[in-house]
Amino acid sequence: MTVIAPEVSLDPDLIGAGDVTHFWRVPRYRDLDCLRATFRRHAYARHSHDTYAIAAVLAGCETFFHRGEQRYAPAGSIAVVCPDEIHDGEPYGGGFEYRTFYPSPELMQEIAEDVAGRPLSRPPWFPHSVIQDPELTLAHAQLHACLSRDGRWTSEMEQDTRLIDFLSRLIVRWADLDALPDLRYGSRGILRARDYLDSHFGQEADLAQLARLADLSRSHFIRAFAKETGLTPRAYLLDRRFRAATRLLQQGEAPGDVAAACGFFDQSHLNRVFKARMGVTPGAYRAA
Predict the structure, then answer these.
(1) Entry pTM
(2) CB 197 within 8 A of CB 237
(3) What is the separation of C-alpha 208 from the centre of its chain, rounded to a whole number of angstroms?
(4) How far apart are CA 103 and CA 115, in angstroms?
(5) Distance of alpha carbon 11 from alpha carbon 106, whole angstroms
(6) How big is the CA angle at 81 (ends 275 and 240), to the nearest 5 degrees?
(7) Burial, 110: exposed, middle or buried (Cβ in 10 Å; 0-12, 13-18, 19+)?
(8) Tens of pLDDT, residues 218-235
(9) Strand 53-66 and strand 77-81: pairing?
(10) Which terminal residue of the chain has fewer beta carbons within 10 Å of its beta carbon, N or C?
(11) Is 65 within 8 Å of 115 (Cβ atoms)?
(12) Residue spans of alpha helices (H) in 175-278
């Protein structure tokens, strides 16, 4: 996979060569991460984010696991994943090209409260994994292009206008502001095991200890945990390490230090886990 600069990433010959990604961050929108990618081979491992992931598919088709089912996002559609939701993603057929934003829950709640005209107790929830809305898909693409110029050819006012307009329309048309499934679902035992992994992600976990927390046998615990979370206990632990690494890299920490702080074996282990979940290397993410 190649990570290239924005002006180079527009070259159609490079786009056709294979997996290509361009990643950047817009700090003034609560560190809004943005990704432009063409994937022909890359498959994301199952993972989750602290943020939303809002992706417009411009060509081809992406298939992804989300909320217990396999989903398909063809060209012209928008895929929406809410914070903490387990998902993956890979090309369906010959590949796909897409643009993704990762807005924070705080930014989304701020826009939702402005739209609703009232305080909200939580960020908006989107009941549909894949949205068919050509007008919004066009607005998404225009906003993405506007932000990718990094302010060189567009004013901050234009960027603000496009961002607020797109997110406002997305929320008005497709969000449910009053209903939110409890993502902390599951038996008390599984929740205890999850809480332990959430607070001890930097350490190696002991399967027998986790099973005792859940009051289950080890084999039953593995099956029950995967059924309720969509991940095995080991994959869940790696996901928590990935999310912690994301936050530290955003703060400018060196990948080697991040690997040690988050419980990875070494920096190469961090590189493999991070790239499989974010589509770019830790170094590229930190430099955005």
Answers:
(1) 0.85
(2) yes
(3) 31
(4) 16
(5) 35
(6) 50
(7) middle
(8) 999 999 999 999 999 999
(9) antiparallel
(10) N
(11) no
(12) 188-199, 207-214, 218-229, 233-250, 255-261, 267-278
Contact 163, 203 (CB under 8 A): no
- Geometric angle at alpha carbon 108, from 105 and 111, rounded to 5°: 150
Whether 103 and 50 have beta carbons less than 8 Å apart is answered as: no
Q: Note whether 285 and 249 are within 8 A (CB).
A: yes
Q: Measure the CA–CA gap between 197 and 234, rounded to whole angstroms.
A: 10
Over residues 68-110, the pLDDT tens digits come to 999 999 999 999 999 999 999 999 998 999 999 999 999 999 9
Mean pLDDT (the chain) is: 90
Cβ atoms of 74 and 139 within 8 Å: the answer is no
Q: For the chain, list the domains and their CATH numbers.
A: 2-174 (2.60.120.10), 188-287 (1.10.10.60)
- Name the residue type at position 134: P
Q: In the numeric block, which tokens belong to residue 136?
A: 């919004």
Which amino acid belongs to residue 88?
D
Residue 285 to residue 278: CA distance in whole angstroms: 9
